[in-house]
């Protein structure tokens, strides 16, 4: 820790301008924090990454692995509020809010309802598309580089539906996708979608095929990224919780953990669902709650599929991964981050899969085989990316909800551009972390 606190590094001689090298502290070791560290190190910065855990099983490991420009509709939509009120009383439903007396939850909920408008949904389409395309490009740039082989594939994504209402909505989404330039998006009939999965009995009325989407195996990209960063000289401070900041003259001078103090020229807040509490330390109002999701991963050939799929009515995601695995995931459970897991929600995932693929008799796994994690959900379904308030050396990168893996690499690139002062790869005004201040 001594060389970290001093702002010096044994890796400086590798850079001809090492005397001017600046030190960045990244708080959070999910895909956003790791990607930020990666691009900052590539730009010649000394980087220290701090995480309250050991990076072995955070939210970035158990997701569906989508890299998806198709997800241009934010979580805050007009219909989700009504459905959420209906679903929240069902322990196996796709959406659940744990009733509790919480000022931050109430504030988030009120802002979420204000944001859930048709106008917001339409305005969010372009920035969500742009950051997803940027992120996809960044992931593809890693392929073939030493240390990276994370089972990246571009087969597209099927959004399979069963009802007439969903079919009507699908036609609108396809039209909007074409407006946004995702011209290879297609609306499939029941026969056409079943032809893509000929060995599976499927209960479907049709599907959207987003051919622009790709997927990867999250554990591999996480483990490989950590190994690459260590090899490049990024310093990891693990099992230390950030508790406060040393602020002088509107500048973050140091990061305080429960064990030590680390000086820095720049600070990146990428702590996922724990970011709101840290943002409050610098008086930044950033409505954000943890939305817990669950997944199970099998290697049983009976449950193999050709294409990643989302079941519209069940809100379940399936992904073929890493050659011989299939991941089943879903649910959005708004609850306190210290609440024990509710395994009945896993049964809801299993039931939702069987509704579409009746032959998939997935056994209820043992508790230690169930993954769960908290996604950081903003109040309007858009991430928080940008400089925070009056602190020009403090960058926020969080609030990606269910799109953390999809948008992770692109967010890391934007963080690097914000700190270096380079032209940004896209307009991030809609992601302003000060927008609710």
Describe, in plain words, how this protein is organized in 3D.
The chain is of the alpha/beta class. Helix content is 32%, strand content 25%. Strands 4, 5, 6, 7, 14, 15, 16, 17 and 18 form a nine-stranded mixed beta sheet that branches. It has a six-stranded mixed beta sheet with strand order 9-2-1-13-20-19. Strands 10-11-12 form a three-stranded antiparallel beta sheet. β15 (309-311) and β16 form a beta hairpin. α2 packs parallel to α11 (404-420) and α5 crosses α11. The chain is globular and about 65 Å long.
Question: How would you concisely characterize the structure shown here?
Answer:
The protein is an alpha/beta fold and 437 residues long. The chain is built from 11 helices and 20 strands. 32% of the residues lie in helices and 25% in strands.
Give a topology summary:
Blueprint: H1 2-6, E1 23-27, H2 31-42, E2 46-51, E3 66-67, H3 78-87, E4 95-97, H4 103-115, H5 118-142, E5 157-161, H6 164-179, E6 185-189, H7 190-196, E7 206-210, E8 214-215, H8 218-231, E9 235-238, E10 242-248, E11 251-257, E12 261-263, E13 266-269, H9 275-280, E14 288-298, E15 309-311, E16 316-321, E17 325-334, H10 344-356, E18 371-378, E19 384-388, E20 391-398, H11 404-420
Parallel strand pairs: 1-2, 1-13, 2-9, 4-17, 5-15, 13-20
Antiparallel strand pairs: 3-8, 5-7, 6-7, 10-11, 11-12, 14-17, 14-18, 15-16, 16-17, 19-20
Helix pairs in contact: 2-8, 2-11, 5-11
């Amino acid at each position: 820790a001594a060389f970290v606190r001093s702002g010096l590094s044994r890796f400086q001689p590798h850079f001809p301008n090492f005397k001017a090298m600046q030190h960045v502290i990244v708080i959070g070791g999910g895909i956003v924090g790791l990607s930020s560290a990666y691009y900052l190190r590539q730009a010649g910065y000394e980087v220290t990454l701090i995480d309250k855990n050991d990076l072995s099983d955070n939210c970035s490991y158990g997701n569906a692995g989508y890299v998806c420009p198709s997800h241009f509709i934010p979580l805050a939509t007009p219909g989700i509020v009504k459905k959420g009120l209906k679903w929240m009383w069902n322990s196996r439903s796709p959406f659940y809010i744990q009733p509790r007396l919480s000022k931050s939850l109430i504030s988030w909920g009120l802002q979420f309802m204000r944001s859930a408008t048709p106008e917001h949904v339409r305005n969010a389409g372009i920035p969500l598309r742009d950051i997803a395309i940027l992120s996809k490009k960044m992931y593809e740039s890693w392929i073939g580089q030493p240390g990276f082989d994370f089972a990246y594939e571009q087969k597209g994504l099927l959004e399979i539906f069963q009802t007439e209402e969903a079919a009507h909505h699908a036609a609108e989404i396809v039209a909007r996708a074409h407006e946004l330039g995702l011209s290879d998006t297609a609306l499939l009939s029941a026969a056409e979608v079943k032809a893509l999965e000929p060995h599976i009995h499927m209960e479907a009325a049709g599907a959207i095929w987003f051919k622009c989407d790709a997927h990867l195996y999250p554990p591999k990209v996480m483990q490989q990224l950590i190994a690459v960063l260590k090899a490049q000289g990024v310093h990891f401070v693990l099992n230390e919780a950030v508790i406060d900041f040393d602020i002088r003259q509107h500048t973050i001078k140091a990061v305080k953990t429960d064990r030590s103090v680390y000086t820095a020229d720049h600070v990146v807040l990428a702590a996922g669902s724990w970011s709101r509490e840290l943002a409050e330390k610098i008086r930044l109002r950033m409505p954000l709650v943890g939305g817990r999701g669950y997944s199970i991963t099998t290697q049983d050939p009976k449950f193999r599929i050709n294409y990643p799929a989302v079941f519209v009515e069940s809100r379940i995601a399936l992904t073929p991964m890493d050659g011989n695995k299939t991941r089943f995931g879903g649910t959005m459970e708004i609850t306190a981050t210290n609440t024990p897991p509710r395994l009945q929600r896993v049964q809801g995932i299993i039931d939702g899969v069987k509704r579409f693929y009746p032959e998939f008799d997935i056994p209820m796994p043992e508790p230690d085989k169930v993954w769960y994690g908290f996604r950081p959900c903003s109040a309007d379904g858009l991430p928080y990316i940008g400089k925070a308030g009056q602190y020009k050396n403090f960058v926020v990168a969080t609030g990606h909800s269910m799109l953390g893996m999809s948008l992770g690499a692109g967010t890391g690139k934007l963080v690097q551009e914000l700190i270096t002062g380079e032209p940004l790869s896209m307009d991030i005004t809609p992601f302003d972390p000060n927008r609710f201040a």
